[in-house]
Specification:
The complex is a heterodimer of chains A (276) and B (256). Chain A contains 12 helices and no strands. With 256 residues, chain B is mainly α. Classes of the chains: A mainly alpha (276), B mainly alpha (256). At the A-B interface, helix 3, helix 9 and helix 10 of A face helix 2 and helix 8 of B.
Chain lengths: 276, 256
């Protein structure tokens, strides 16, 4: 009878520790979480409809109602559609990011997050999976929204414009998903949904969403000047109004980077508190 | 007004005020849109053709009111759908209660909630500097019209809920509330709307309801828009209530 072999003991305490501790970000686990996010869309296709329908109705409705606003000086374009299209794109990203938080609330209610936290997966991996899943999913509603807008007369963006759209929108979605995760971990329920959506929508609308800075009321201008999303909207707006500039572009990415770092830190702290 | 109707109305109101997640769409969301519209688009009052008004905030208040009232009507429909799904509706039907009381109770609750909603937005308006052009009489007219509009939208919500088999179907109508709103003159003067919204707004009942609420707040006690608002609201109540009762009968006969 062959002697039974025992698993090899760690060579050193350091090696043993690395074997027990999960990696900071495990790409295979992130991929699995992203795939799970896509499964929700594939198995319930209707769930992706609000991400297209609501911003499309919002966009067309705003243009039909407030379209004559561009007769005022300061808009830099005579097309209100071109002016508010970035807002609709960010709204779509916000809805998709917010849905990540609502789904996380459901996962908490059903105990799925608890099971995930018991697995040898780092907290950063879990957060990265949630956020990247949202960032990838937002690429589903963006093309139909752009097609609708261009069909209605919005200017066709340049190649650089398209690249900016396909970078800024998913990044904003990731930021929104991170914020939504913070709220979901705080309230631990899907019932946080109205608060998640209202806070994301407010961050988009209390900015230069409907009018240029110089036409805003003083109190609104004060908010818009301090709202980082203003820079994100202006970074996206240059794809449809005026020309793409380096300043507006890096301001947008700096705002997204800052928001991402702050919310990711909060989300990781919230995850730790959740475990506690 | 029977005792079961009043009991069902009180139950509906208790459920609404007990759950903050139900109140957020009714009060917070329209307040956000009101603030954003006023903060961003007040300069549009300089556009040629914009009517003389006490303030852009006063002009926008009715838009927030009808938005809130329409969402409230949708929520009444969702609440009834959930009661059908959960079996509560079946228990009410088997109880010794007139079936009409189910509809009347909901509509009574909608009237009270509607008055509360418009009073809330009037308070918001006053706090942020809007004048009530129609004075105390205008305040009463807005409260009455708001309560009636609440009944009208709730009746539409009930008519849909009795026909829909799932609450999610009623919930899915949420974006269409905004479509109807944008195709009316609730947010902006009809003359300044882009085609085809200007044409549709002229025949959209919501334009007249918003106009009836707007006159006492932003322009003064003008008889024509107020009477038009009252008449159109009454018409919607009659038609939607008949549809709701027909839907209830269909639901009872269908049994599924």
């Amino acid at each position: 009878m062959a002697p039974k072999t025992l698993p090899a003991a760690p060579q050193s305490p350091v090696e043993g520790a690395s074997a027990r501790l999960p990696r900071l970000v495990d790409p295979s686990a992130v991929r699995a979480l992203v795939r799970r996010g896509f499964n929700e869309i594939l198995r319930v296709p209707g769930a992706s409809l609000p991400g297209v329908i609501s911003p499309a109705i919002f966009l067309v409705g705003l243009v039909l109602v407030f379209g004559s606003a561009t007769d005022l000086p300061g808009y830099g374009t005579d097309s209100f559609l071109a002016f508010v299209l970035p807002v609709a794109l960010l709204q779509s990203a916000g809805f998709t990011g917010g849905a990540t938080g609502v789904n996380l609330g459901r996962d908490i209610e059903q105990g799925w997050l608890d099971r995930l936290l018991l697995s040898p997966t780092s907290r950063t991996t879990i957060l990265a999976g949630l956020v990247l899943s949202a960032a990838a999913r937002v690429l589903i509603p963006v093309p139909p929204l752009l097609v609708i807008a261009i069909a209605l007369g919005a200017p066709m963006p340049s190649l650089a414009g398209f690249l900016l759209i396909l970078t800024i929108v998913p990044l904003f979605c990731a930021v929104a998903a991170t914020w939504a995760s913070v709220l979901a971990l705080k309230f631990r329920s899907q019932q946080a949904s109205p608060l998640i959506q209202a806070s994301i929508l407010s961050s988009i609308l209390f900015s230069v969403s409907y009018a240029p800075m110089e036409l805003l009321q003083p109190w609104m201008r004060a908010i818009a000047e301090h709202n980082p999303v203003t820079y994100v909207i202006e970074g996206l707006r240059q794809c449809f109004v005026g020309e793409i500039t380096w300043v507006a572009t890096w301001h947008a990415f700096a705002a997204l980077g800052g928001l991402g770092v702050v919310f990711a830190t909060l989300a990781l702290l919230s995850l730790r508190r959740y475990e506690g | 007004m029977s005792a079961p109707s009043i009991a069902l109305a009180l139950r509906a109101l208790r459920l609404t005020f007990r759950r903050p997640q139900f109140l957020i769409p009714l009060f917070l969301m329209p307040s956000i849109f009101l603030a954003v519209n006023v903060g961003g688009l007040t300069a549009t009052t300089r556009l040629p053709g914009f009517p003389e008004t006490t303030s852009f905030l006063a002009f926008q208040l009715p838009a927030a009111m009808v938005q809130s009232l329409m969402l409230s009507g949708l929520q009444a429909g969702i609440a009834v759908s959930l009661e059908i799904e959960s079996g509560f509706f079946d228990r009410i039907v088997t109880a010794p209660v007139a079936r009409l009381a189910i509809v009347v109770g909901r509509l009574m609750a909608a009237a009270v909630l509607g008055a509360v909603q418009v009073a809330f937005f009037l308070l918001v308006g006053v706090l942020f500097g809007a004048d009530m052009a129609g004075g105390p009489a205008g305040f009463v007219i807005v409260l009455v019209l708001g309560a009636l509009a609440g009944v009208a939208f709730a009746a539409i919500g009930l008519a849909i809920a009795f026909r829909a088999r799932q609450a999610s179907i009623v919930q899915g109508l949420f974006p269409f509330v905004f479509a109807v709103l944008y195709l009316s003159s609730a947010f902006f003067p009809e003359e300044l709307l882009q085609p085809p919204a200007d044409t549709i707004a002229a025949i959209n009942p919501l334009s007249y309801i918003a106009g009836g609420l707007r006159a006492p707040i932003a322009f003064g006690l003008q008889a024509a828009p107020i009477l038009e608002g009252l008449l159109v609201t009454a018409g919607v109540i009659v038609v939607a209530s008949l549809l709701a009762v027909a839907g209830l009968r269909w639901r009872l006969a269908d049994g599924s």
